[in-house]
Amino acid sequence: MPLINGEINLAGEIIVHDIDRSGYIIILFVLFLLIILIVGKIQGLKAIIAFIITMLAIFFFMLPQIINGHNAIFITILTSVIVIIVSLIAFAIMQIQMAGIEIKDFWSFIKANEDLDELYVFSKKYNKMSPQEKVIFLTEGHII
Predict the structure, then answer these.
(1) Is the Cβ–Cβ distance between 78 and 67 less than 8 Å?
(2) φ/ψ (deg, to 5) at 19
């Protein structure tokens, strides 16, 4: 392991203040992300995306603002609101794309969300139906 913050004293002895563990930490972090993806699948991917968005907001917006002397509480609340909004929009876009709906502009994005809401309501009703009711429903709806 390479030494970090080590020094050699007058007697030629090496004094170690710290050991470089960054390689192990990176391996554990990658392993952690893989386990999240394996166990969580789509939800895990969403969690990782939210984590990345949050870290970017903290390191590139919140910390520089606080270091520059701005009100820490206000900046923290503002960062939280921005992260929540960006994450919700990112997840909505991901769901719309998974549903195969094309988005061209803001209004098509709103319409796609309304369509997804209707599909969700339909799926709840459909899952409560018996197998016979499902066949009748699909046959009468000319979906089959």
Answers:
(1) no
(2) -115, 140
List Cα–Cα distances, 144 to 100, 120, 135, 137, 139, in angstroms: 20, 20, 9, 10, 6
Q: Count how many Cα atoms sit within 13 Å of the Cα of residue 121 in the half-sphere of its side chain.
A: 5
Please give the pLDDT value at position 7. 67
Backbone φ, ψ for residue 137 (5° rounding)? -60, -50
Residue type, 66: I
What is the rounded CA–CA span in Å between residue 44 and residue 51? 10
Task: Give per-residue pLDDT as tens, 95-129.
Answer: 888 888 888 888 888 888 888 888 888 888 888 88
What would you report as the CA-atom Rg of the chain, rounded to the nearest whole angstrom?
A: 26
Write down the pTM of the prediction.
Answer: 0.60
User: How far is 102 from 45, CA to CA, in rounded Å?
Assistant: 21
Which amino acid is present at 88? L
Look-up of token digits 């796609």: 112
Q: Which tokens belong to 123? A: 């799926």
